[in-house]
Amino acid sequence: MATQTEGPSLADRRGTMLADQRGTMLVNQRGTMLVVDVGSTFTKAALVDLTTGRMSARGETPTTLDTDVMDGVRSLAIDLGDSTAVDDGRILACSSAGGGLRLAVVGYERTVTAEAGYRVGLSAGAKVVHVASGALGPDELAALAHARPDIVLLVGGTDGGNAEVLQHNAVALGKCSLPRDVPIVVAGNVEAQPLVAAALTQARRPHVLADNVLPEIGVVTPESARAAIREVFLRHVIGGKGLSRDPAFARVVRAATPDAVLAGVEVLSEVLDQDVLVVDVGGATTDVYSAVTPRGEDAGLRKEVVAPLRFSRTVEADLGMRWNAEGVIEAAVREHLPAPTALRRYAARLGEHPAYLPVGPTEAGLDLDLARLAATIAVRRHARPPFPGEAPRALSDLGLVLGSGGVLRHTTADVSRALLTAVTTDHAGGWRVPRAPRLAVDAAYLLVVVGLLAASDPAASRAVARTLAGIDG
Fold first, then answer.
1. I need a labelling partner for 387 at 20 to 30 A (CA). Which of 54, 279, 342, 361 fits?
2. Contact, 311 vs 349, CB < 8 A?
């Protein structure tokens, strides 16, 4: 039977995340922290009281990609009444601007190690842009380079198992046409890793070693690889996207946004002691996060070769409210969901204007229709069995379904609830819908705050999570 190891405790795992924040928190004499998410379309910020977990101010502005992303960050700091937060070190930020974190996964066998690497990459906040399996040849290496990854995750073989493919692929990656500064995270057969590291060192490829993501069949251990991807993102990637000339940018960004959100989902589920599903409808992608404890039949009948992760994320790069609006329509047609002519015309205009805001009630309604389709399709993909014969994700016992994204934050509670109701009653979607979940919207954008505070100040993180969950005390 396939099982998933528990690995280190949640607190221990968070200890590897954002560890350098501890020094930042010590200089926070005023007890407030500016928490910022630099998104692909909008930059959001909140000023948080670390003692109470309450947000004293929040705001957002279009991400200033055409000048410098820190222009928008500093502008928000001024607007929120704390103009010195950036330079005083009282700021934590995450970023998905510039396309976020692009990850390629190279594994041994597509349905085993490559699939395990794929799931780990998504849980680490990466957009998986390419998956390759087996011994890489010229055609596979060319396809990998064409995908333009920021990081390559190299996996393959259980511990003590096949080592030849992992070693072959390390040598091949050392000689391929990927830019020389693209780092490689090695998370395969640990017994083969010394030879793999030697080959990459000889080729002068930057690399980081992590624990095997699949040490034995049916056991997934994502924590070490997830931490390594985060480290490489901060060290090699965030400064290389040309988003900012301001030296503060590399200093304040602590994680890719999806990684921070997933950490927030973990804390929220822990505080509630319930299963949680989060649907984040964004301008470029729609992401779905879940924290699920298998119970009953779901706990006893898992037979997948690659076990499901308890804390999971899926990213749908073709489902975005602006950059990929036409992709939402195309996906709706494939899912046999209605996409009226007016909605198709509206979506066709949005890709060229990613900062566009709807004008008037008609366009506002079309925006909501587009969001409903994106959310419904994204949750279907998240919940359905990844392969024939596997079980769907165990979402029947969800206690909370939380909506996120500007389209949900900027509408009325009744409208947002209706959208989430459509998602959670999608009986034709091919997944087991939740029985009686509570529906809510992260209107203050607190989940990313919870995640960014999780390692450096667990008490503040939990306090903000309790505020988000509507729990007093």
1. 279
2. no
Range of 109's domain? Answer: 101-239
Same domain, 345 and 408: yes
Looking at the structure of the chain, the number of domains it has is 2
Q: Is residue 460 pLDDT above 50, yes or no?
A: yes
| Half-sphere exposure for 274 (CA within 13 Å, toward CB) | 19
Say whether both 226 and 282 belong to one domain: no
Residues 437 and 299 in one domain: yes
Q: What is the pLDDT of residues 403-448, one digit of tens each?
A: 998 899 889 999 999 999 999 999 999 899 999 999 999 988 899 9
Say whether both 128 and 276 belong to one domain: no
What are the phi and psi torsion angles at 32 (to 5°)? -125, 155
332 and 427 inside one domain: yes
Query: Percent of the chain, pLDDT > 70?
Result: 86
Would the pLDDT of 341 be above 90?
yes
157 and 112 Cβ atoms separated by less than 8 Å: no
280 and 233 in a common domain: no
Query: Are the CB atoms for 53 and 449 separated by under 8 Å?
Result: no
C-alpha span between 99 and 182 (Å, rounded): 16
Taking the model in full, what pTM does it have? 0.75
First to last CA, the chain: 42
The predicted pLDDT at position 12 comes to 39
The strands making up 32-38's β-sheet, listed across from edge to edge, are: 55-62, 42-49, 32-38, 91-95, 253-256
